[in-house]
Specification:
With 207 residues, the protein is an alpha/beta fold. The protein is built from seven helices and nine strands, in the order αααβββαβαβαβββαβ. The chain has helices spanning 10-16, 22-30, 38-42, 85-95, 112-125, 140-148, 184-187, and strands spanning 50-52, 60-62, 74-78, 100-104, 131-136, 153-158, 167-171, 175-179, 193-199. A seven-stranded mixed beta sheet has the order 3-9-8-7-4-5-6, covered by helices on one side.
């Protein structure tokens, strides 16, 4: 459970048989949180959801369902001109014990300047050890450049997919990093940038 206001009402206490302290009852009554359904209460919260152990129908979010689409993931968000060093250090730390990474950024070889910048960034975050790297849509020049950064790296180039728009770094098929605007914009401060880290150990693999 992340930060955010958790809201209840007097009806929830009555329905569950829990004792309601007088001070809380007065506060809930003053806020007009009395005889409301769970769905009505959820509309008073920032996230508009109800955590559930069984239901997946909105506004319910099933905390026991591996296929639940609304998740509680880790997010780093940076505005234009924000320093990105903390994000770089975080991404590097996530990759340090990897033995296999998947890199999906369909713009990685859009031009030679961006390709070189992206490979420089990958060199910063990937561990200098035996590592299998599956990289989508990297051209021959980029493959040679990436492999030259560490003699223990083995790079396989794969074709892109029309069904994928987001950019990803997948670590040992256990942790997925979703990059909102690609490798290039992690360090490029001309635009905002967001990344999402999610555990996918039991989930369907993306690639």
């Amino acid at each position: 459970m992340k930060g955010g206001r958790v809201v209840t009402c007097t009806k929830q206490y009555t329905d569950t048989g829990l004792k309601l302290q007088m001070s809380l009852q007065k506060a809930l009554t003053k806020a007009k949180l009395t005889d409301l359904s769970l769905e009505e209460v959820a509309q008073r919260t920032p996230y508009k959801i109800i955590l559930s152990e069984s239901s997946s129908t909105f506004p319910y979010v099933n905390i026991n369902d591996d296929d639940e689409k609304i998740e509680n993931d880790l997010v780093g968000s940076y505005e234009k001109d924000d320093d990105r060093q903390k994000a770089i250090m975080h991404l590097k730390s996530l990759c340090q014990r990897a033995s296999h990474v998947v890199i999906y950024d369909k713009y990685i070889s859009r031009d030679s300047t961006q390709e070189h910048t992206d490979i420089n960034f990958l060199e910063k975050i990937l561990p200098k050890k035996v590592l299998l790297i599956d990289c989508f849509e990297l051209n021959d020049t980029g493959k040679t450049d990436l492999e030259s950064r560490c003699s223990d790296w083995r790079v396989t180039v794969l074709p892109g997919s029309a069904s994928h728009h987001d950019r990803y770094i997948i670590i040992d098929q256990k942790v997925e990093i979703i990059l909102s605007s690609g490798l290039y914009h992690v360090e490029n401060k001309d635009m905002d940038f967001t990344y999402i880290v999610r555990y996918i150990g039991k989930k369907k693999k993306r690639f």
